[in-house]
Amino acid sequence: MDSIEELRSFLRDAYGILISREKDYLLTSRLAPVLRQLKLSSLRELWTLIRQDPKGVAERAFIDAVTTNETYWFRDTTVFNNLQDKILPEITERRSQNALVRIWSAACSTGQEPYSIALCLKKMELAGKSIQSRILGSDISSDALQRAREGLYTSFEMDRGLPDSDRQKFFLPEGNMWRIEPAVRSKVTYEQINLMSGRADIGQFDIIFCRNVLVYFDEDTRTQVINMLAQHVLPGGFLIFGNAERPHAAFREAFESYAPNIYKKSG
Length: 267
Ligand SMILES: C[S@@+](CC[C@H](N)C(=O)[O-])C[C@H]1O[C@@H](n2cnc3c(N)ncnc32)[C@H](O)[C@@H]1O
What we know:
CATH superfamily of the largest domain: Vaccinia Virus protein VP39
CATH architecture of the largest domain: 3-Layer(aba) Sandwich
Number of domains: 2
Order of helices and strands: HHHHHEHEHEHHEEHEEHEHEE
Number of helices: 12
Strand content: 15-25%
CATH class of the largest domain: Alpha Beta
Distance between the termini: 50 Å
Shape: globular
Bound molecules: S-adenosylmethionine
Strand order of the largest sheet: 6-2-1-7-8-10-9
Number of strands: 10
């Protein structure tokens, strides 16, 4: 097997991400800066390093380079309208006042998704409907997670989906960038979690967002990941997908379709 094929298989087997042979040019062009950064002269050397040091520097750089981290604020407004107007009020109504509402943004990229959720919660708080909540953001890309933890965004990123009123209320200018205010930032914790392996110890959630990542997986992996996520949803809780990410039939029997892309677990 040549090294590009080894790298492609590794990406599929360890992370679920499919890159077809026709897209080798994409892989090669995304990996050129990694070779420069690690002072390597070939993909063979990169593959050797990845094998020698699992989860080490080379593997992290490889994953950072090959993942597509496209994201923006309040992506899919219907989902966020449902979250704010229906789902969060429904959850808080049936839970005791001080119960913690847990939300997981699985594959959170650079943080716009978990912070959009945090902004919904913050606005509810300001409107007098205070909710005790914690949000977990997770991804496999170390670079994306680092940026999410910093909560610092360029003007270009700020212009993608964020209402001006939110920018004024919840962000502080820093040079020509914008930092999310600490009170919103502190609602979210970040962890590196590979959806292929999951993390049994993270417990159950009222709501899980898993959006625009399943599209990179093949059908079996999608089913496996959705089944894993379904176990982390509390009875009566919600699992939210991206557009065009339709879950498999067995899942649709166990979860009720609640709104576009939103499924509710019975109980
Ligand atoms: C296109 S972004 C979607 C971000 C956000 N959920 C949204 O909808 O805007 C896809 C993210 O999935 C992450 N990802 C890809 N494979 C993953 C895996 N096996 N486990 C966890 N995250 C993964 C990528 O690193 C990337 O940040």
